[in-house]
Amino acid sequence: MRTLCLTLIVILSSSLSWANLPNTTAQQQLLQLLRPIKGFSANFNQLLIDQNGQTLQTISGVIHGQKPDKVLWTVFEPAAQTIVTNGSQMWLYDPDLEQVIIQPYNKNPESNPISLLLGDPQQFSENFELLLQKTLADSVLQFSLKPVTSNSLYTHLILEFKNDILSVIGFEDNLGQTTTLLFNKFKLNPSFQDDFFNFETPMGVDVVNHVH
Q1: Closest C-alpha to 15, from 145, 202, 135
Q2: How sure is the predictor about 152, in pLDDT bands with cuts at 50, 70 and 90?
Q3: How far is residue 195's CA from residue 99's CA, in Å, rounded to a whole number?
Q4: Among 177, 144, 154, 171, CA closest to 53
Q5: How far apart are CA 154 and CA 176, in angstroms?
Q6: Which residues contact 156 (CB under 8 A, 6 or more apart)?
C-alpha cells in the first residue's frame, strides 16, 4: 500500500506565458472547468513510470470525492486497498495486512493534487504558476502547472479535460518519476449518503493511530 498512499498524500498569482484564448484567459478557462465540480465518481487506472520511461506499477480501482475534502479511494488491482478521508483525518486500510493507519488529512494542494478538485479553485492563483495551455485534440484541453514553492513534493502537474470533463491528472516528483491517473466513466456531482466518507474499522484489524 505504500506507493498508493504516497500518491494520494504526495498527490489540483499566475505568471502566464501564452496568448489569451478568445474571450477568456487560460487561467480563467481552467477555473471555469473546475468550479462545477462539487463531487465526482470515476473509475481510474494509475501508472507509475520511472525517469527512464519504465512502468513501475499499475493500479486500478474507483475513486469518489465530495467538497470539502472528502475522498473514498478503492483499489481492486493488484491488491485490495482503501483510503478514506472525511476532510479532517484519513484511514488507510490494507485488508491483506489486516491493518488500518489513521492520520491527519493533508489539504495542501502542493502536496496532495487530489485536493485541487475538492477545495476552492481560486487556490491555483496562490499555489501554482500556470505554465501552458494547449489543445491536444478538438475535444481535449491540457493545462500544465508548476508549484510556486521550491519545497513542493512534485515538480509539475498536468490536468486534462475531454469534452469539459476531467480525464487525466499527472505529476512528476523530484526523483523524475511520473504518476498518471486516467479517469473513465467520470460522473459529475453524484449524491452520497451522509456517512459515505467515514470508515468503520473491521473487527480484529490492527489500528495505528497517528491522530493526536
Answers
A1: 145
A2: confident
A3: 21
A4: 177
A5: 9
A6: 131, 144, 145, 146, 147, 171, 172
Cell 473491521 identifies what position? Answer: 202
Is the domain defined by 2-62+108-193 classed in CATH 2.50.20.10? yes
Q: Looking at the chain, which runs of residues are DSSP E strands? A: 39-49, 55-66, 70-77, 81-85, 89-94, 99-104, 128-137, 140-147, 154-162, 165-173, 178-188, 206-209
pLDDT digits (tens, 9 = 90+) for 2-24: 444 444 444 432 222 333 334 45
Helix extents (H) in 54-198: 123-127
In residues, how long is the chain?
Answer: 212
> In the chain, where are the structural domains located?
2-62+108-193
Dihedrals φ, ψ of 5, to 5°? -60, -45
Strands (E), 18-80: 39-49, 55-66, 70-77
The CA-based dihedral angle spanning residues 174, 175, 176, 177, taken in that order and rounded to the nearest 10 degrees: -110
Could you report the per-residue pLDDT of 90-105, keeping only the tens digit for each? 899 999 999 999 988 7
73: Cβ–Cβ under 8 A, 6 or more apart, which residues?
4, 8, 61, 62, 63, 64, 82, 83, 84
* Closest among 96, 73, 90, 85 to 205, alpha carbons compared: 96
Interatomic CA distance for residues 67 and 39, integer angstroms: 6
Instruction: Assess whether the previous peptide bond of 95 is cis (omega < 30° from 0).
Output: no
CA distance 178 to 50: 6
